[in-house]
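Running this now, will post back.
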Amino acid sequence: MKITVFGATGGVGREVVRQALDAGHEVTAVVRDPARLTVPEHERLRVATIPDVTDEEALVPVLLGQDGVVSALGPSSNKQARLAPVAGPALSAIVSAMDRAGVRRLSAVSAAPLGPDHAQDGVLTRAVVMPLLRRALRDVYADLAVMEAVIGASGTQWTVVRPPRLLNKPGTGTYRRAVDANVRAARTIPRADVADALLAALTDPASSRHAVGIAT
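Update: finished.
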């Protein structure tokens, strides 16, 4: 496949680029600062420098001829999300540019707190832990909620992946999945497993137009 990756310099984005190249795909990594892309040069890797990912006109050229798009974009902190939302504005431009470029398949990372609480999680988790988390990071989740709404209203064949807390650990390859739900007792997941889920979604018709909860 030919895949364009947004957010390629972040923790999940770098893993997406690495895994896609290892799987034999051709990758276009969209970055603001090429110096921050730590993935080694590769004959199937093209780096596209776009300072503003809300600039639809700049996005169309990096999407022409592609088979799929992965977005690993998201706010890095509550303060950033409050002052300058990232995911919502970026995905608004990306899905419009995809439509113009004729690219249909999209997977994007979101977060587990945007999904429904699992009925089998304990009362403490559902009544205390999750409400506190949603309140503490309300601006982050507000940005991601706008992103999900934009994606859901688009004409793309989209999949939103909702992980819990991300870890810098080797991928397990055995993470749990739940379509249109969160998995039970979702606590953590390695970034490498999130990248695997994002790439797998591009070729999984069953996940098209669904949110997928994942966790180890």
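Residues 138-153 form the longest helix (16 residues). More later if anyone needs it.
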